[in-house]
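Following up on my earlier thread - several people asked me to post the actual chain instead of describing it. Fair enough. Here it is, all 97 residues.
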Amino acid sequence: MRAGGCVTFLVRSKRKALLDEKGLCIETPQGNFSVQPRTVTSENLQPDYDLILLAPKSYDLDDAMQSLNGALDKGVALPFLNGVDHLEKLDAQLGRT
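Reply from S.P.:
Thanks for posting it. Predicted structure:
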């Protein structure tokens, strides 16, 4: 985002409203800054993403995968989750590449 990359956050409606209003505060050892991130809800998600970083809590994985329906046309989902129990679910829902 700050470096010019095109990043979109898939969020729920209430979180979208909050981010749209207040922005996203980033804290780093090199200094803090705020950005106005591009956000989308599952209702408005289009299949035009090259890469989806998937990082929900394990209890929210099913809902997160449901939210991604139709988002991956030519892109790839890269999961960032603890353990390996989720891999079969992800393969079944999103395909294996």
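The chain has a mean pLDDT of 84. That should answer part of your original question.
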